[in-house]
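Thread: Newbie trying to understand structure tokens

Hi all, I'm a second-year student working on a class project, and my supervisor (Dr. K.) asked me to get a predicted structure for one chain before our next meeting. I've only ever worked with sequences, so writing a 3D structure as a token string is new to me. If someone could post the tokens and maybe explain what I'm looking at, I'd be very grateful. Here's the chain:
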Amino acid sequence: MGELLPPSVDDAEYQRLVEAGRVLFAQETKFFFGAQRLNQLEPATLPEVAFAGRSNVGKSSLINALTGRKMLARASSEPGRTKQLNFFNIGEKLVFVDMPGYGYAKASKDVKSDWQKMMFAFLRGRPTLLRVMLLLDARIELKQSDHNIMDLLDRAAVTFQIVLTKADQLSAAQLDKKQKEISEVMKTHTAAYPFIRVTSSQKNIGIEELRADLVRLIQD
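---
Reply by user tm_fold:
Sure, no problem. This is what the structure looks like when written as tokens:
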């Protein structure tokens, strides 16, 4: 299910990062702030990693799996209704920013436009934001909304890493094909980090490895 080692990481370093990730995510993790408007944001004091993805991509499930807490992040009962940025403190070392889901088909054009404006303003104005984890459902073809958010991240000059979710529901051949398709798309985006992480929150696939990615990011 994809390569384990990101670029420029040997096996010994990878094992060190895995252990550091285990230690980090064993620390206290808590929700501490939600903002519906950018003028509500408090000054950032810790490095941040944001999680973005279409509605129903499994964003809350992935955050819960990473932190080992089943109810830390809660999915909205109505997709597309969550409009705020949610902030989670990970052991006083890292902050997760849970961004509102995009691409909900029933959302009005005004809502979609407001989402893009808010996200672009946040991305451009957050110097502590190290990376955006862009979640894509491995089972579903890329939508125009996915291309739009990649373009937005390019314009904001914020590095994003593709994280495939629900990968346990594909065969090895299907998953390999999907990764190749996404890799080709990534080549067209200046802000794309050249490594895809494959995950399944349900089967705990790729969770340990993604924790290692996050530790490496804040240690670099």
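A couple of things are worth pointing out once you decode it. The chain has six helices and seven strands. The radius of gyration is 16 Å. Feel free to ask follow-ups in this thread.
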